[in-house]
Amino acid sequence: MYSFDIQRPTSVADAVAALGTDEALPLGGGQTLIPTLKQRLSAPSVLVSLSGIAEIKGVCTGDDGALCIGGGTTHATVAREATGYPALAELAGNIGDPAVRNRGTIGGSLANNDPSACYPAAALASGATIVTNTREIAADDYFQGMFETALNEGEIITEVRFPVPEKGAYMKFEQPASRFALVGVFVAKYADGVRVAVTGASEEGVFRWTEAEKALSSNFAPEAVDGLSVSGDGMISDLHGSGAYRAHLVGVMTKRAVAAAH
Amino acid sequence: MPKDHGIGASPKRREDVRFLTGAGNYTDDINVHGQAYVHFLRSDVAHGKINKIDTSTAEGMPGVVRIFTGADFEGVGGLPCGWQVTDKNGEVMKEPAHPVLAQGKVRHVGDPIAAVVADSLEEARTAAEAIELDIEELPAVVDMGKALEAGATKVHDDLSDNLCYDWQFGTDTETTDAAFAKAAHVTTLELVNNRLVANPMEPRVAVGDYSRAGDDYTLYTTSQNPHVIRLLMGAFVLGIPEHKLRVVAPDVGGGFGTKIFHYAEEAFCTFAAKACNRPVKWTSTRSEAFMSDAHGRDHVTKIELALDKDNNFLAVRTDTKANMGAYLSTFSSSVPTWLHGTLMAGNYKTPAVQVNVKAVFTNTVPVDAYRGAGRPEATFQLERVIDKAARELGVDPIALRRQNFITQFPYATPVAVEYDTGDYEATMAKMEELMDIPGFAARRAESEKNGKLRGLGVNCFIEACGIAPSNLVGQLGARAGLYDAATVRVNATGSISVMVGAHSHGQGHETVFPQVVAEMLGIDESMIDIVHGDTSKIPFGMGTYGSRSLAVCGSAMVRATEKIINKAKKIAGHLLEASDSDIELKDGQFTVAGTDKSVAWGDVTLAAYVPHNYPLEDIEPGLEETAFYDPANFTYPAGAYACEVELDPETGKVTIEKFVSADDFGNVVNPMIVEGQVHGGIAQGIGQALLENCAYDENGQLLSASYMDYAMPRADDLPHMANYVVDHSCQTPCTHNPLGVKGCGEAGAIGSPPTVVNAVIDALHSGGHTHVSHIDMPVTPSRVWAAMNSQ
Ligand SMILES: Cc1cc2nc3c(=O)[nH]c(=O)nc-3n(C[C@H](O)[C@H](O)[C@H](O)COP(=O)(O)OP(=O)(O)OC[C@H]3O[C@@H](n4cnc5c(N)ncnc54)[C@H](O)[C@@H]3O)c2cc1C
């Protein structure tokens, strides 16, 4: 680790001000950022810890019925308190291990947008809104490729609003070493249609499988996915599986998510 | 009633009190006043010519004490290899220099180029970034086949090629060929024994200290064998005589073989402590461990099995390429030869067995012994080819094995070793009973109802442990003796310290060894402690590996305790005014046979140290004895393993539903610890079979360089304890050591990989995927899926 200063603001306004300095980075749970610092792959001069900001923590229900999760809420809190959206609570409860879940935050996960992370699938499949200190961003506009998002420098995720589906489920096929998603599929059935988001598979990061969405919107049953497939081109190919294998798993996990949706 | 003390009892591990309460004293817990820290600048290319290393800027950075490069080690010895293998033409193996810091070339990712010693670790790291390197990247030699092609890039320019040795062993070619020529059936299998990283929980650490006052050195290090390090580093690398060099290996958090070897960082810290006149400490990060700890396995093999028309094994022939990595690690050369070829007969009376091994240099981390070392490689190929033969011939894999078992002992194999004792039928029958083989069909039907395939895999294994008879291994090229030593020091009040050459780093010696001495003396175990891991405290010792601690060092301890008993009887005889030949020792009392005259253990020990009424004219005061023990033969633990897997045909994911081991370890001192050793060994075997894959790309970059990509087995990868059955009730005691013990530390890791793969193939065949005859380890979901869809 290189040396850095740390600031511990207690309000979003103070955090934004602190982030105005050169080479400042927000620190969520540190589950991604701290290892990066330890490997000296990142050298911020200031870390602005968000964990002391009460206003971006916690789970509640909005006036429109959406589940609202503060950007600084840990995975463990979501797993415990997002009872209104069981599929989301289950997803959070299967991220990493207890230590990771007690530190890592939804804001950190979405800001990082790891192509194998779980939350991006939930946000995209739910048509969630990413709320920052300056604006509201629709999930469809937010994810812009591996580790790329619509966030500007110094912008903080303060809240994520998830419209609650009639039924939903997340199916994660774990990469055996990291236990991130080798392929993860989040299926959410709303009154106006089904959304399917896939993580872990594509070199472009999380994506919607529109073909399956169409089929499932007319028949929300595993068989509806039969015969549909995504192409292995553009899929991640590594030690743990070829692009073709990942493409195959997208189909399998989608069906399983539909079968498990509740 | 199970015993509650002594041999055969299962007292809880006494060392766990400190380990589980955070009171262990590991090498990284040791801080010497005034110590500096070293950071190694390591190569990030697999192969390159060092044109320039400019340290001038870095030397001026804050906190820097001194920066070392290969030039500082000219004239200093290289890291030695402890075993010289002679090839099939009578030529000795090629032995390239292995400098402490790279000289002229870097040969693998992680090869240390420079070492920065600074007041703090962060300062050392920062200074290292300011070292200017000009390294001309050369083509990397990664694939063993390509490494052996004519004109291939050479890892070592001063050698003629990348072939370390071409070894042949066992039955001669003419006899072997004749056996194959008359075979009714030949089964051939090509397979890979995957490269592994041992990953002990504690990474390696070294602290070097030098005292100008006595011109002597102390090295604290994470080692399985401090005396071996003292010998190798003192005599071969730094030229420090034994009496000026103390090596301490305190609590060590797991070794699995990878902490046997003498490493560059140990030599560096010791050397630099004098050069800087400051203690120097190095603590490996996990990332460094992946690219500097010796790796394990990495064999590519073709094996052929010849059978007659009645399915009797006629001959086995193997052709293996074994990866040595870029340099020869301490025992690397012995692993694919003497620890592998000698086990190729397995549990079977195959009359002709020929083993061919080419050891190959590549631009990868050195490969050496890892739990099992050579024997897992032998077991895997033999038990896989037998399984394949059974499938090709349409015969029951258990019956085929049974029919070919060795049943008469001692049995001299065609590959040099002589099995002293065993009962393979007994362990096979025990395994069948514990696995409930007849119930398998119903369990398979149940799995199929849930859309899963179920497979049953069985195999046998044998290993040569209790390493090793010195005169034999000397003939085979070992540059050391492999005896062990123990001193039993009885104190005046009767308590005992036993100084043992074996090192305990998870094995539980501190619990088990006292059980043996307590049983022999009839006193309470709590009166006995063992001392290990410090060359200044123990007489000598070759350390712990090769399942040797109890069989070899335990035997030395028994011999030393026998000497204690003999002397104590003389003292008791004197006190009781009887002849020592009439004295009996039972339950800690010395009694004159046939009388009620007795003295207690404590009276005798006190007399030895307060010799007021003592036969000083006949015997010396004090009560301390040392014994060295050199085994007459290896020991041969063996067993039968079985497992049931469930395979998800949609994803290719394999789960282990049940695992059974039936082992014969001879006599067992602490059943609980034996079971724990086997559980752990099988976990590592399952890890190798399903998860662990140390992989390089074609440029020699390590793809699995962290736990993000290197999959270690976790509790939920293993069957629930109720279905994880380890049995050691079949016992044919070793015939040549005093305890009749064979060793249990490696068995699980040796026996279990083929069990898993055999079960996976069985599952696939039951699902109609009969074209799949083999899948290389690790049998990952993606590989299973690819194999299923490979037609
Ligand atoms: C062992 C392990 C296992 C894991 N397994 C999984 C898994 O199975 N699935 C999964 O999805 N993830 C997994 N993770 C990742 C984990 O979920 C992380 O917590 C998450 O990716 C980052 O969240 P964080 O709060 O720790 O962010 P940090 O590490 O603190 O920050 C990550 C990045 O986000 C920025 N940032 C942080 N908070 C905000 C914010 N509110 N607004 C804007 N930018 C912000 C930081 O500046 C940094 O660039 C795992 C991590 C570990 C260590």
Number of helices of chain A: 10
Shape field of chain B: globular
Provide the structure class of chain A: alpha+beta
- Largest interface, Cβ cutoff 8 Å: A-B, 18 and 26 residues
Roughly how much helix do the residues of chain A carry, as a percent range? Answer: 25-40%
By DSSP, the count of extended strands of chain A is 12
- By CATH reckoning, the class of the largest domain in chain B would read Alpha Beta
Side-by-side strand order of the widest sheet of chain A? 4-5-8-6-7
- Enter the CATH topology name of the largest domain in chain B: Aldehyde Oxidoreductase, domain 4
Give the name of the CATH architecture of the largest domain in chain B: 2-Layer Sandwich
Low-confidence stretches of chain B: none
Cα-to-Cα separation, first versus last residue of chain A? 45 Å
How many domains make up the coordinates of chain A?
A: 3
Average pLDDT reading of chain B: 97
The CATH topology of the largest domain in chain A comes to Uridine Diphospho-n-acetylenolpyruvylglucosamine Reductase, domain 3
The largest β sheet of chain B comes out as: 7 strands, mixed
State Rg of chain A.
18 Å
- The radius of gyration over CA of chain B amounts to 27 Å
Q: Approximately what portion of the residues of chain A adopt beta-strand conformation? A: 15-25%
Question: Please, could you describe this protein's structure?
Answer:
The complex is a heterodimer of chains A (262) and B (791). Chain A is of the alpha+beta class and 262 residues long. Chain A has helices spanning 12-19, 33-38, 75-81, 86-93, 98-103, 106-112, 119-125, 139-142, 210-218, 243-260, and strands spanning 5-7, 24-27, 46-49, 59-61, 67-70, 129-132, 136-138, 157-162, 167-174, 181-190, 193-199, 207-208. The mean pLDDT of chain A is 97. Chain B has 791 residues and is of the alpha+beta class. Chain B folds into 3 domains: 31-138 and 201-254 and 259-292, Aldehyde Oxidoreductase, domain 3; 295-468 and 633-788, Aldehyde oxidase/xanthine dehydrogenase, molybdopterin binding domain (Aldehyde Oxidoreductase, domain 4, 2-Layer Sandwich), CATH 3.30.365; 483-629, Aldehyde Oxidoreductase, domain 4 (2-Layer Sandwich). Chain B has 19 helices and 30 strands. The chains are: A alpha+beta (262), B alpha+beta (791). Chains A and B meet through helix 10 of A and helix 3 and helix 19 of B. The site of flavin-adenine dinucleotide has 31 residues of chain A, from strand 2, helix 5 and helix 6.
